[in-house]
Design a protein that fits this description.
The chain has seven helices and ten strands. The protein is α/β, with parallel strands linked by helices.
Length: about 260
């Protein structure tokens, strides 16, 4: 089982320079995520959700504030921080087994230990029997499960997911949400999911962080407080989902007010 990391973000600010102008992207983001917690982040396009994940994983730098994993400042990429993108990004010339094993290239351990680790994670994501298949022989959902296994095989302290099911059809998406929930409970790992899908956010998250755009900042953190597994059709689920959706309605009203002529 992977170590579950503690993520602490304090007064995070991020900006870009675009054609000589400063473009604020994130403003005063403060958030603490406990070990083993699943946090969903939702918000309209342009609110900086993906930028926040890229900063946490170490793909971007040049920010003000603090990002700490287990008390240590994030600097560059690390095997302690795994990430899954919307596109699976598998190497088409490698098999399922080879794609996952590639993540272990620079990790300690014997070849036999790495083989066992890969086999365990193939089983974890439900792809036993597909070890020698190539990406073009897999469905989109299966490819994303390979990407999840590849991100988990190094046993990171935290797994970041950036719209991992956004390109999939509704039925596959629903199935993989259940699978991700199962994997999260089996691994006990800290997870952060960025999504546009409010129902997905509530189904998976212990808390839902609602962000508002330009610059991106936290509008509200909604505790879900429902036991697992969750019943999407239940009244309690609907109340939490509606509470999150109400935040988006508030954003729209605020935007219209700002746009009104004086």
């Amino acid at each position: 089982m992977a170590h579950a990391g503690t993520l602490s973000i304090a007064h995070l600010h991020k900006q870009y320079e675009v054609k000589g102008r400063t473009l604020p992207v994130l403003e005063d983001i403060t958030l603490t995520i406990a070990p083993g917690e699943f946090v969903s982040i939702v918000g309209a396009s342009g609110c900086g959700k993906s930028t926040l994940l890229r900063l946490v994983v170490g793909l971007e730098e040049g920010y003000r504030g603090e990002i700490l994993l287990d008390g240590k400042r994030v600097a560059g990429t690390s095997l302690q921080r795994g990430i899954v993108f919307q596109e699976h990004r598998l190497f088409p010339w490698l098999t399922v087994e080879q794609n996952i094993r590639l993540a272990l290239l620079n990790t300690p351990g014997s070849a036999a230990e790495k083989d066992r680790n890969v086999a365990e994670h193939i089983a974890l994501v439900g792809l036993r029997g597909f070890e020698q298949a190539y990406p073009h022989q897999l469905s989109g959902g299966m490819s994303q499960r390979v990407a999840i296994a590849r991100a988990l095989v190094t046993r990171p302290g935290i797994l970041l997911l950036d719209e991992p099911f956004g390109a999939l059809d509704a039925m596959t998406r629903s199935y993989l949400q259940q699978e991700l929930h199962r994997i999260w409970q089996a691994e006990g790992i800290t997870m952060i999911l960025v999504t546009h899908d409010v129902e997905e956010a509530v189904y998976l998250g212990d808390r839902v962080v609602v962000m508002e755009p330009r610059p991106g900042r936290i509008r509200r953190i909604v505790p879900v407080g429902l036991p697992h597994p969750r019943e999407r059709a239940g009244q309690a689920f609907s109340r939490v989902r509606d509470a999150v959706l109400q935040e988006f309605a508030g954003q729209a009203i605020a935007a219209e007010t700002i746009a009104e002529p004086a």
